Amino acid sequence: MNLPTAATTLIILCMLAAPALGADGGVVRSVSTDTLAAGGTVEVTLALPQGSMMGIVETVPDGFAFAGTTQPEGRYKVTGRQIIFSAVNETAIAYTLRADAGGSGTITGLWEDVRTGTSGETPATRIIAAAAAAGAATPDPHKSPGFGLIAAAGAALVAGRRCLR
Fold first, then answer.
1. Which domains does the chain have, with CATH numbers?
2. What are the tens digits of pLDDT across the range 1-33?
3. Given 1, 20, 21, 99, which residue has the most CB atoms within 10 angstroms?
């Protein structure tokens, strides 16, 4: 085989193998925490196959709102509970959700790699936002803890001694 034919054959083999290199799977989602306080945030990271050209649609549960992303303007769109991303030759996308109130739900996702023609679902991820208890008092940072109990015990002791006289 002469050199130009060998080079052409090698280039064709590389082009045929390239889709298989990026097709090692779909999108994998991870979260910084699966339980957060109402009003708190959670960072969601999507790991993408190297060399992919993807469209990704993430659907967030009720009670959670989109709060930002690492994607530049024009590479994502938020419509209701859906976040649509486009990714070209990226290995990760991160976005932040804010828990508006207590509750729980599941983040779901769909993806399509237009370069390889593959598509699929991202496994669901459950997140929980713990609501503040109704009527729960927030602690006063200026109050010394525990002295109210000591004062009540002292008052009970004094009252008890007077009753015994």
1. 23-128 (2.60.40.740)
2. 554 544 444 344 334 444 443 345 699 999 999
3. 99
